[in-house]
Amino acid sequence: MFITELSGVGAKRAHALQSAGIFTVADLLEHFPRDYDDRSNVKTIAELIPDAVNTIRGIVAFEPECVTLKRFTVTKLKIKDHTGTLEIIWFNQPYLKKNFKKGGEYLFTGKIREQGTILQMQSPDYEAAGETELSGGRIVPVYTVPKLYSQKTFRALIYEALKFSGTLSPNPNELFEKSSTKTLTGGLFEENISRELREKYDLCDREMAIRNIHFPETDEMFHHARRRLVFEELFFMQVALLQIKEVVKAQKGIVFSCADYAPFLEWLEFAPTGAQARVLAEIAKDISCGIRMNRLVQGDVGSGKTAVAFAAAYLAAQSGYQTALMAPTDVLATQHFVQCEKLFAPRGIGAVLLTGSLTAKAKREALAKIKDGSAKIIIGTHALIQDGVEYACLGLCITDEQHRFGVNQRLALTQKGSPDEYAPHVLVMTATPIPRTLGLILYGDLDISVIDEYPPGRQAIKTYCVNSSYRERINNFILKETSQNRQAYVICPAIQENQDTAPTKTELQNVTAYTNELREALPSLQIAYLHGRMKPAEKQQTMDDFKAGKTDVIISTTVIEVGVHVPNATLIVIENAERFGLSQLHQLRGRVGRGTAQSHCVLITNSKNEQTTSRMNAMTQTTDGFRLAELDLEQRGAGDFFGTRQHGLPEFKIANLYRDLDILKIAQEEAIANKDIVGALPPHPHELF
Asked: Is the pLDDT of residue 39 over 80?
């Protein structure tokens, strides 16, 4: 049932709804409220509380009037009830006059102000009192509304959809009768959870849940509705992940003829840690058993994941297959390529770099080597999955910083392999410590390996939190570190000042302004800046100069958060640290501490916020990424876990991974027990992502 079947949805409004991902009536009814406003306590005029939001019911005492002043128009309305009268006004909305009739009864919600001895409500939300009251006298849903819709008009559309779908009684007075036992069997909301499961976990039926998530009659009904819908969402997400995992396990994997990585380890300048050796053994077992590998390697910053990935690429090359390694940024892809060339080129194993910033000639040459098989290791960005990239014999797909990619992108890379029945092996890596809670969702389709040791000689990074009054001392500390031929990062959350407003002392520090200030304060140092709006070639040159020691200090946005490896960098200063989550701060801190010298992280914030203080204390007290990740998930929720919108995390309509941990656990248990359920899933489970 398309959205255009609802009354009042013409071409323009349909386009606005479709732009918000709403194409059908079912889509609309699964566009759940983001919040609720309790307007069920309707006061009399005598009970109104000044300087607070009140909901009242009143009768229009006189005809509405419009008063035109020099610079604006005021629309005035006088309403009354049995306890008194109240003036209501709107500014520059003269058209509202026609919406009210003398003697008509209406509901108003707005803030009450005292104007001398007169009580006044300004610009309230309102609706006519009657059989259908959606914006007053009840718990009112608040939505993220598409363009062309207000909260009021969108609520009305939701109500119309509920009537249209048959989930509402024709009699508005019976809309929310608790005794209703009606169950849809052939409509939009046919039940998709068995009676046994509903009874086992005391879940209400789906129709009741949909009705009460939009227009809850009571708090109790709302909580019942939400619990049912959260369980449903997490349950089917888990079923989908398990089905993907089963599909992968059913696929025949390429059997690599070489599973001995010992020769590769001799090329390295260090001996592998016990954790690296354990993970390599797991990979070797996967690639030689005839079942397709689908494994996540999770390790904290600096734990040696890249060496493990290159060892796997070595096994593929020795077995006659190609490896594709996909990184989220040009800078990281180029860094991997430089390391790869250093290791593999002297041994006659060809590698190419494929990114969007290559010249046309370089891209043609890279594509030719990929197609004819002379390139055994292909490193790049999303360019690896674009049309026109043909692999000769792709046997291993590696994605770095997996949370930057979704399941679909992972699949797109593996589908670049041979069209026969043998699928390429999959290895994904992340330096972001994922709490187990979030891992159940992000990586439910993967086997997980953890590198939980650091290479010998690494020292714990000393972390401090100070306010901006320490800036001169910090500058002196930068001088001290660079005088010992070491280097420093400074991280700023913004690129440049807002051109529309004058800068203030509390405004975010920014890359361009900070660079100029630091160059003036420390004229003897070579200082450069780096941000995401620079051209790829400029970014790469800046990083190359820093790695080569030509630059003492690099001032950057979080573009350096992921994977950049400069062992000589021993100091990182993070401005406006309150702007970042714990996990992102931990990732940024991991840019230093990669050599044997003592490294330092300085967090700068002037915030007195209690949560900020708690986060900064956690950063100074532990370098345990998993502990910090759990705290981050608890404080900020999954939606902000990575500091930016994460492509790998499914868009949940209602579930909150931290708040709903108890439901997630039982949903996963039941998904495992009921993984053969397919009726309510899309034809391809990965579409859920």
From this structure: yes
Residues 6+ apart with CB under 8 A from 611: 635
What gap in Å lies between CA 217 and CA 179, rounded to an integer?
13
Under DSSP, is residue 621 helix (H, G, I), strand (E, B) or coil? Answer: helix
Alpha-carbon dihedral of residues 163, 164, 167, 168, nearest 10 degrees?
A: 20
Residue 294: the pLDDT is 87
* Phi-psi sector, 320: left (phi>0), alpha (psi -120 to 50), beta: left
| Angstrom distance (rounded) from CA 373 to CA 7 | 59
DSSP state of 494: B
Q: How far apart are CA 189 and CA 527, in angstroms?
A: 61
Nearest to 259 by CA among 294, 287, 292: 287
The residue-averaged pLDDT of 101-120 equals 92
Confidence of residue 243 (pLDDT cuts 50, 70, 90): confident
Closest CA to 404 of 445, 432, 439: 432
* Block residue for tokens 């593929």: 316
Instruction: Quote the CA–CA distance of 350 and 78 in Å, as a whole number.
Output: 82
Q: Which of 341-355, 530-544, 593-607 has the lowest mean pLDDT?
A: 530-544
Residue 406's pLDDT is what?
57
Strands (E), 281-375: 294-299, 322-326, 351-354
pLDDT of 643 strictly over 60: no
pTM, two decimals, is: 0.65
Reduce the DSSP state of residue 272 to 3 states and report it: coil
Burial class (CB in 10 A: 0-12, 13-18, 19+), 242: buried
